Amino acid sequence: MALTGINAYRKGSLKQDIANADPHKLTLMLMQGALDRIAYAKGAMERREYELKSQYISRVTAILINLRETLDVKIGGEAAENLFALYDYMIDRLHDAHVKNDLQMLDEVANLLTPIRDAWVQIPEEAKQEAYLAQRQKREAV
């Protein structure tokens, strides 16, 4: 019973965080969520809880697909193209890890995603605001 209340509180808190987040924060939350779910999938894999492992890997895959699809390769150029390819690679590795029950492949994906998340955290506030305003103006012009 107490766990139900805690989980409801967490969900409510997460919904509030999402509602108040700017695009930079949302992306950071997605990256961190993917890393957390990789860790959960590893635990489930170690415990041989294969259905749970599958759910976590599916969630990580969905997050990476979302991150990949939000890239604008026209604006981001080669860097965005490289990131797109890296997300594709991570998605493939997640699939292989799921099929082969391979913890090292999950570690590989986490080790590829962590520096991206860390770099995202290091973006200066001024640059975040500038990008947010540019994106907003672009949407309003359409």
TrEMBL record:
InterPro entries: FliS (IPR003713), FliS_sf (IPR036584)
Keyword flag ATP-binding: no
Subcellular localization, as worded in the UniProt entry: Cytoplasm, Cytosol
Keyword Metal-binding part of the UniProt annotation: no
Keyword terms: Bacterial flagellum biogenesis, Cell projection, Chaperone, Cilium, Cytoplasm, Flagellum
UniProt family annotation: Belongs to the FliS family.
PANTHER family reported in the protein's UniProt record: FLAGELLAR SECRETION CHAPERONE FLIS
UniProt protein name: Flagellar secretion chaperone FliS
Species for this entry: Alteromonas gilva
Organism taxonomic ancestry: Bacteria, Pseudomonadati, Pseudomonadota, Gammaproteobacteria, Alteromonadales
